[in-house]
């Protein structure tokens, strides 16, 4: 039987027209290089989006064309998001922190036609432009007064580009499955891989991530996404804030500046923010040093990597702010799980249970199917113990990477590369990365848990645990540790430290003290390098 | 450019499998005719849903077949919702309060193959079964111990039907645009008209209506939908509660019983409920009489008709419960607007402004595009003054009615039949029904506002205002009023009552005192009858 419902596509244009009409008066506040506090309304924003759409058309750009951006979180970047995607073009947010070769690779691979850039990244593009002959020109995101001298070809000032364009634009009808944006994920090896979002996936992610037990944005929230807009569309908040009618505060280049963030929170009335742990540490350090408060702030979402308990505690106990763990990745739009513990959990649970509960990565949001599987691909129970590879599927999860035909999914399930168990409350606890997990005697050992345990020792500054081949056990864990300056510890003392803290057979079989550990460009431990270096490590018992 | 996202359909099956896995331990509590307090978990529910799906297949039912239900809100009705829709069949919830001819008409029109009924409605169906030769059989929603003697053909006891079926079922892949449910809307004239929901529209409505500024259901909520499941899928809460992981409490036949509702609220920890104003009045009256409290209750959604301010005030002032207006209709799945005033609005606004704000029907939810238009179809501004016909469109709004080929929408917009203005805060205020509005001198007069003003007079029990043809002004308002027993009022006094309360040209041109006013079967004023009766009313000045 046919449904009688209207056939209406899901598209980003509808977020824009909805917010323009229903929440037109709500403010968007930005810090930019040329303005310490720019403010206007969603209605003002979308008026300029229409001017920009006219300008894009005038540049000769057409549907399906890809446009690159190198920019911080501010109102001009917001305008680009909507003008590009709603014109049927594809917004390619380039991470300006990548190495030159990577920036060159992804601009070339995505086939960017024009690149819009903050003044700060003009130098990078000047170095690269001759390697990018297909880029037709560059638009600098500033006004004439702040326009730099530049050798970029066809360089145009953004404000000049849109100044005389009409304030109306006839938005095209778009297939909901057409591409809206592309974001590259850079692994530790190989070229970055592109994930192409559709209008449909963006809207569904927007709905799912806005539910009360996820970001839960409301008309009465003021949200400040501190996660860069070049990281998975700022976790989608750039779409979900106008959808909810939440006031949007964008810190521009001030994302790591605790003082600037505290000022924005207090002066703009921020209630909800989102970012990686280091951002919250910076804010916390500033607050503790200055004695300032953030009384209007209610909740902080933390993702990107596991957040230490001390940050949860400090915000809760001293500032009455709830920190909430979330987990996801570029391939998931990005939100996969969200941990909203009950408002009264701190009172109804023991401190230990409460701490454990808060540190989980969270429950799957509706729209994400999640399972954990063993090495044979058999699904494991959600019992708080069985640890396995995390696989996901759903309408806002990628099937494959751009221009790589073969599906990245196994039987329709995307391999996240994370290893986790699910507790009986359906909360996920990540224990490792698939490639770092240690396989010993047919069981898995969590390298992360061992590392966390090692650095809990007061003498240890940093630790890495890797699996090294072992004739009897397949692999055994080897601990590599950096000792704090001035501290002393013996190998035996170190290994005894694990007694009673982890299962006996998890205890590292040996330990090597090193002066430093190798890191990737983004600051993560490079276990691949360690595995190469120690692949022939001689076990005592082998 | 092609997106790289997975191609995953939106369907109700995914709500079931999600809730089964993530929220399997959450409770579902029901009152039924055969059990004063049945309780089990979502996981138990979906196990029985799979048994039921096997039973449906065994009855020879196949995809696209329509199955009727005549049932109150309880766990067996919940099981039917999921087993039918997820099998690819269509769940037709029949309103058992309709007249016999209407029940017969809609069962025949929807082509119900089998009908599942509560014991309470067996008599109705026995009267009608010979007029419904295409219905192959009837399943009685009870166990053998409570099975009534019945002449219904092929009568089967529900518990017996599913008892021996397997607990596994291989759910079919469904096109997201395929029909999931059908619901008839009964106007005051003509046959009831069927609205057919799709899996896609159901999921999108589920997302949109679950946002924080709408129903806002969370894992930590306990929700009790008091709106019948035969009214637009219980406002969708039967889908959104498991999606959110909220505990679900279903009052069965006790929907109008204040005492039973209070007991359920307190014993089951209900935090959020939804229903029509008369339900809240019944609860309030019970609470005031008994002196009981409902301390865990946080919010009540009220829809179906405008809720009097006295109910808002009583719940807020005496019981610390927030009443929230919502507006929608069968054709909209049903939610169109929701009024969540800010938590602190009562403190920051004057009482008058706060009252006005709370009584609005609310802001459109994302997924519903809403506009108001004048008689020429020109869109009107949202200025708090311009009143016009309310039109909507969106992916969970109907385009037409079942088996009526022509679109019910005008240029893609569905005519709601309501007249409203939008205030500057994007809150809708309904002022009339399109068919009841009075057109005078090229302007519209709200019959509802005049009626509300009239009944504010202490001598008036009930009032109706209709437009009657006038040679100079097209129409003028005529007031028909019922005087309270023992009260006295003159025509002049009555008409002067409006002075200063409404615009001068709105004041009824004449008044007739009547002993009673005509009502429809559902208790609404029948203005059509009044218009017929007074169509030749002789104006003094004409």
What does this structure look like?
The structure is a homodimer of 542-residue chains. Chain A folds into 3 domains: 15-252, ANL, N-terminal domain (Rossmann fold, 3-Layer(aba) Sandwich), CATH 3.40.50.12780; 370-433, Luciferase, domain 3, CATH 2.30.38.10; 438-533, 2-Layer Sandwich (GMP Synthetase, Chain A, domain 3), CATH 3.30.300.30. Chain A is an alpha/beta fold and 542 residues long. Chain A starts with 11 loop residues before the first helix and ends in a 9-residue tail after the last helix. Chain A is built from 17 helices and 26 strands. The longest helix of chain A is centred in the first third of the chain and has 17 residues, at 42-58. In chain A, helix 12 (309-319) links the parallel strand 13 (299-302) and strand 14. Chains A and B meet through helix 1, strand 8, strand 9, helix 7 and strand 16 of A and helix 1, strand 8, strand 9, helix 7 and strand 16 of B.
Task: Describe the structure in brief.
Two copies of one chain form a homodimer. Chain A has 542 residues and is α/β, with parallel strands linked by helices.
Report how far the terminal alpha carbons of chain A are from each other: 68 Å
The backbone outline of chain A, from C-alpha atoms, is: globular
Number of domains of chain A: 3
- Low-confidence runs of at least 5 consecutive residues of chain A: none
Key words describing this protein structure:
Luciferase, domain 3, 29% helix, seven-stranded mixed sheet, Rossmann fold, alpha/beta, homodimer, 542 residues, GMP Synthetase, Chain A, domain 3, 17 helices, nine-stranded mixed sheet
């Amino acid at each position: 039987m046919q449904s009688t419902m209207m056939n209406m596509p899901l598209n980003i244009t509808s977020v824009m027209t909805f917010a323009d009409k229903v929440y037109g008066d709500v403010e968007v506040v930005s810090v930019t290089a040329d303005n310490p506090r720019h403010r206007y309304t969603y209605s003002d924003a979308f008026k300029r989006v229409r001017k920009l759409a006219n300008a894009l058309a005038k540049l000769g750009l057409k549907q399906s064309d890809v446009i690159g951006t190198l920019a911080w979180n501010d109102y001009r970047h917001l305008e680009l998001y909507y003008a590009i995607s709603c014109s049927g073009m594809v917004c390619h947010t380039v991470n300006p922190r990548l190495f030159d070769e990577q920036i060159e690779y992804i601009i070339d691979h995505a086939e960017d036609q024009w690149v819009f850039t903050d003044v700060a990244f003009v130098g990078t593009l000047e170095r690269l432009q001759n390697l990018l002959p297909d880029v037709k020109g560059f638009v600098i995101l500033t006004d004439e007064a702040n326009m730099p001298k530049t050798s970029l070809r066809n360089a145009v000032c953004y404000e000049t580009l849109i100044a005389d364009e009409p304030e109306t634009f006839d938005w095209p009808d778009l297939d909901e499955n057409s591409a809206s944006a592309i974001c590259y994920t850079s692994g530790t090896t190989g070229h970055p891989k592109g994930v192409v979002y559709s209008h449909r996936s963006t809207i569904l992610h927007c709905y799912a991530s806005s539910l009360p037990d996820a970001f839960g944005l409301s008309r009465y929230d003021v949200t400040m996404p501190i996660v860069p807009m070049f990281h998975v569309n700022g976790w989608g908040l750039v779409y979900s804030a106008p959808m909810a009618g939440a006031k949007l505060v964008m810190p521009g280049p001030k994302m790591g500046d605790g003082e600037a963030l505290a000022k924005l929170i207090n002066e703009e009335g921020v209630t909800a923010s989102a970012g990686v742990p280091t951002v919250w540490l910076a804010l916390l350090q500033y607050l503790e040093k200055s004695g300032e408060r953030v009384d209007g702030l209610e909740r902080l979402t933390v993702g990107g990597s596991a957040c230490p308990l001390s940050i949860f505690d400090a915000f809760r106990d001293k500032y009455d702010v709830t920190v909430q763990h979330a987990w996801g990745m570029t391939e998931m739009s990005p939100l996969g799980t969200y941990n909203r513990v009950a408002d009264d959990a701190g009172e109804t649970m023991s401190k230990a249970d409460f701490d454990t509960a808060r540190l989980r990565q969270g429950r799957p949001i509706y729209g994400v199917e999640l399972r954990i599987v063993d090495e044979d691909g058999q699904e494991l129970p959600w019992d708080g113990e069985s640890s396995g590879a995390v696989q996901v599927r759903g309408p806002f999860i990628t099937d494959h990477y751009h221009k790589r035909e073969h599906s990245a999914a196994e039987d329709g399930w995307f391999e996240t590369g994370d290893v986790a168990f699910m507790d009986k409350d359906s909360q996920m606890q990540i224990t490792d990365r698939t490639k770092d997990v240690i396989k010993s005697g047919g069981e898995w050992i969590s390298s992360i848990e061992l590392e966390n345990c090692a650095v809990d020792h007061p003498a240890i500054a940093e630790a890495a645990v890797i699996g090294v081949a072992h004739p009897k056990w397949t692999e055994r864990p080897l601990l590599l540790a950096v000792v704090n300056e001035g501290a002393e510890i013996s190998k035996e003392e170190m290994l005894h430290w694990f007694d009673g803290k982890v299962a006996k057979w998890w205890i590292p079989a040996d330990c090597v003290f090193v002066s430093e550990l190798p890191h990737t460009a983004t600051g993560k431990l490079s276990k691949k390098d360690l595995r190469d270096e120690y692949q022939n490590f001689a076990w005592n018992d082998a």
